[in-house]
Amino acid sequence: MGDKKQKEARIKTVKQVIVVGACVLFVILMILSGTSSHWLSIFQVIKPGDTVGVDYTLYDATGIPILTSNQQIYTTTAAKGGYILYSKQLSMTAGQNLTKNIYPVSVSSGSTESTTQFALLSTEYQGINQAIIGMKTGDQKRIQIPNSSEPKLWDAATVTKSGLNVSDLHVGDLLPMAMSDNPQAMATNSTITYTRFGEIMSKSDEGIVVDVNYPAVDISIVSINANS
């Protein structure tokens, strides 16, 4: 084959490669355009005003998970005999301040199919809400939550009034407690209450010391709906 024919053959081959490459690129672009919202969300950074879906797990002072929206964490903890509550993912507007002291979330446990309203404290909600700004879909982070209150002493009379026996309680036990945005009205049973679990930190002849703070929360970004 002459040089001229060899050159023409090489040019023909190059053109075929270019045409095939262009077709493949076209197909890829068509696929991406059909799933553009999901594809672009990988690179999308959370900004104030965006609606965000968040997986979260709250931990007590000893590092034990108390409340989670993560099915695997819930199943693993429950299988080990630990008491843990399960909730749906949080849906929140990034950067939006909570106007109340409590953000109620529906929770359930493995021992019953019924749900109850759990008191997520404003410090926890605000901590998550501020931490998500700048994160992307799939990002994970652990947040430290400042104490909203000091551990409280329940004297023997208070424990008995609650229908409990001090001798039956142990350090590390979780006590269901009723919480409200309006403690004064709560005393007269004229306000809505939400459930929260306090952990017994110590026990003595004087009574028990109960802590309602959860100092750490793990979060994972599930979805982002940008504020257009």
How would you sum up the major sheet?
Answer: 8 strands, mixed
CATH architecture term of the largest domain? Roll
What is the global morphology?
Answer: elongated
> How helical, in percent, are the residues?
25-40%
Structural class: alpha+beta
Uncertain stretches of 5 or more adjacent residues: none
**What is Rg?**
27 Å
Would you give an account of this structure?
With 228 residues, the chain is an alpha+beta fold. The chain has six helices and twelve strands. Helices cover 29% and strands 35% of the residues. Strands 1, 2, 3, 4, 5, 6, 7 and 12 form an eight-stranded mixed β-sheet that branches. A hairpin with a 2-residue loop joins strand 5 and strand 6 (112-121).
Task: Please provide a brief summary of the model.
The protein is of the alpha+beta class and 228 residues long.
Task: Name some characteristics of this structure.
single chain, alpha+beta, 228 residues, Chitinase A, domain 3, 4-stranded antiparallel β-sheet, 8-stranded mixed β-sheet
